[in-house]
Amino acid sequence: MRHRRRRVFIDTHKGRVSAGFTVAAEADAADVSMRLRERGWIAYRLRLEAEQYAWIATVIDWACSAGCSGCSVVRKKLAPVVALKGAE
């Protein structure tokens, strides 16, 4: 018997692109998050769209939020996020 898999998509301010992999139908948000991190994406929100049989990950494209012009959504490794110390 063939098991159904869910596609994973990435939402950024430029639109939605395929993450390039699928997960098992039984996978939960933690499983999807770990697979995204293996590919260099950091999702701040994951949602399941059951009717489309897909997971949607919302990410921040740090290169674009830094003020660069002409950036595009491409599959890339993101720089590690560094926690900033607040004013003391």
Map the helices and strands.
Layout: E1 5-12, E2 15-24, H1 29-38, E3 43-49, E4 54-59, H2 62-65
Parallel strand pairs: 1-4
Antiparallel strand pairs: 1-2, 3-4
Radius of gyration: 15 Å
Task: Give me the strand/helix succession.
Answer: EEHEEH
Figure out the total of helices: 2
Task: Walk across the major sheet and give the strand order.
Answer: 2-1-4-3
Distance between the termini: 60 Å
CATH fold-level label of the domain at 5-65: Ubiquitin-like (UB roll)
Beta-strand percentage?
A: 35-45%
What is the average per-residue confidence, as pLDDT, rounded to a whole number?
77
Q: Return the CATH architecture of the domain at 5-65.
A: Roll
Count every beta strand, where a strand is a DSSP E run of 2 or more residues.
4
Given helix and strand content, the structural type is alpha+beta
Biggest sheet character:
4 strands, mixed
List keywords for this structure.
single chain, 88 residues, alpha+beta, Ubiquitin-like (UB roll), 4-stranded mixed β-sheet, 35% strand, globular, disordered C terminus
Protein model, in words:
This protein has helices spanning 29-38, 62-65; strands spanning 5-12, 15-24, 43-49, 54-59. By secondary structure, the chain is α+β, with helices and mostly antiparallel strands. Residues 69-88 have low confidence and may be disordered. A hairpin with a 2-residue loop joins strand 1 and strand 2. The longest helix is centred in the middle third of the chain and has 10 residues, at 29-38. It has a domain at 5-65: Roll (Ubiquitin-like (UB roll)), CATH 3.10.20. It is built from 2 helices and 4 strands, in the order ββαββα.
